[in-house]
Amino acid sequence: MGICGTCKVMKTAGEVEMEHNGGITDEDVAEGYILSCCSVPKGDVAIDY
Fold first, then answer.
1. Where are the domains of the chain?
2. DSSP classification of residue 32
3. What pLDDT is stored for residue 49 in this prediction?
4. What is the pLDDT of residue 26?
5. Cβ–Cβ under 8 Å, residues 35 and 23
6. What 3-state DSSP class applies to 47?
7. Which of 3, 19, 38, 45 is most exposed, with minimal Cβ within 10 Å?
8. What is the pLDDT of residues 2-49, one digit of tens each?
9. What DSSP state is assigned to residue 37?
10. What residues does 42 pair with on adjacent strands?
């Protein structure tokens, strides 16, 4: 559901569609972070955790 932010990871490549309920800030998203629990890849994606 994307509430707690525990699964926040840095996306280093690719695009995802992320539906969340406040578990990540707009600033984090702008820096490239995603919530892995509620992100659907739109192709190949690379992350750093």
1. 8-48
2. T
3. 84
4. 94
5. yes
6. strand
7. 19
8. 899 999 999 999 999 999 999 999 999 999 999 999 999 999 999 998
9. G
10. none
pTM of the model: 0.90
Alpha-helix runs per DSSP H in the chain: 26-31
Q: How far apart are the first and last CA of the chain?
A: 20
How far apart CA 17 and CA 14 sit, in angstroms, is 11
Q: Which two tokens stand for residue 33?
A: 């972070």
Alpha-carbon span 22 to 46, nearest angstrom: 23
Tokens found for residue 42: 């739109």
> What tokens does 16 get?
């995802």
**8 Å CB contact between 48 and 9:** yes
Burial of residue 20, with CB atoms counted within 10 A of its CB: 0-12 exposed, 13-18 middle, 19 or more buried: middle
In whole angstroms, give the CA distance from residue 30 to residue 47: 15
